[in-house]
Design a protein that fits this description.
323 residues; inorganic pyrophosphatase (n-terminal core); alpha/beta; 19% strand; six-stranded mixed β-sheet; 2 domains; Diaminopimelate Epimerase, Chain A, domain 1
């Protein structure tokens, strides 16, 4: 058995009072993994709290949870902190930063370049999702992958594999998904829940952003920008921007897709996407971000114009070096 997995198993079995968290602005893997971990702790009759600084995204409000996801830390520190799907210690946000420093921490993640910020670090970049890792944890504990636990795991896997279309769709994750279905998972219903979450305003936002998409370097780079002005005009939020960058990635000539989102006047969230051997994780790392080979991102403390120039320069140099 993996030594780090064994440490996680022992710690969960022999201790109590856990706080489970994931990165801010959580995606399907972050929320699915949190819910799945909560169900495991519930099965073991452990005391636990689910926390996320950004809360539960509205688009995922349909997911059954073992406990509410709170946005406020409990008054008493937990004995153990479990941090999921966070490439470094800053990803869970400001509220929990001090807690990571003073409470024993289990770091469970699948991002390249994770520095191992926990007392226990179970990091597997080859895993499709943290949800897949948590599923293995449940299996080692003889907890059946059924019901709401299975739905949470499927949400994680389907989210981070792009509906089983990305290169991280391994034989192992397909076999795990088949097992979930054999155990009674209604994947068609869960897929419908995942996909039918759009509002008309979100459609208008996507239309506005895509209308102003740009191509650079002879069509090898696709770029979209999302300003605060556009969000206000369409009465949408950053949650409605989920998946926008993937439209640009699907342009035939594009090797790297870039999304720049203005969260504040001098705070730009960037997302990079690619296919195959084009490693956007290397590009994101040079900008202080991180992630996966074909999906990475980060935040830049500068204006939108400056961020655009900086990222385009880095991506151009990378792609020209590959010619």
């Amino acid at each position: 058995m993996n030594k780090n997995l064994e440490q996680v198993l022992t710690t969960i079995k022999e201790n109590d009072h856990f706080l489970v968290t994931s990165h801010i602005n959580p995606d399907g893997d972050a929320i699915g993994a949190m819910a799945a971990m909560g169900y495991i702790l519930q099965s073991l009759q452990k005391d636990f709290v689910l926390f996320n600084e950004s809360g539960l995204p509205q688009r995922l409000a349909w997911l059954k949870l073992p406990a509410p996801i709170t946005q406020e830390l409990p008054e008493t520190d937990p004995q153990w902190l479990i941090v999921l799907d966070s490439g470094d210690s800053s990803r869970p946000g400001e509220k929990i930063k001090d807690l990571i420093g003073r409470v024993k921490t289990i770091n469970i993640d699948h991002h390249l370049g994770n520095p191992g910020f926990g007392l226990i670090n179970w990091v597997e970049p080859q895993s499709s999702s943290v949800g897949e890792m948590v599923a293995r944890l449940a299996q080692k504990l003889d907890i059946p992958l059924q019901g709401a636990l299975a739905e949470a795991i499927f949400l994680s896997i389907a989210s981070d594999t792009g509906g089983f279309s990305f290169g991280n769709t391994t034989p192992e994750v397909l076999e795990l998904t088949a097992h979930l279905i054999r155990q009674g998972l209604d994947y068609a219903q869960i897929n419908a829940q995942m996909q039918k979450q759009w509002s008309l305003n979100k459609v208008k936002l996507h239309g506005h952003v895509l209308k102003n998409a740009e191509l650079h370097l002879n069509g090898q780079i696709g770029l979209i920008t999302i300003t605060q002005e556009i969000l206000k005009k369409t009465e949408t939020t950053i949650e409605d921007c989920e998946g926008l960058v993937n439209y640009i990635r699907n342009i035939k000539s594009v090797k790297v897709a870039i999304s720049l989102r203005e969260d504040e006047p001098d705070k730009i969230k960037f997302s990079l996407r690619s296919y195959g051997n084009v490693n956007v994780q290397q590009m994101a790392s040079s900008l202080g971000g991180g992630g996966h080979r074909n999906a990475s991102g980060g935040t830049l403390e500068m204006s939108l114009t400056q961020a655009k120039e900086k990222i385009l320069d880095i991506v151009r140099r990378y792609l020209r070096g590959k010619d």
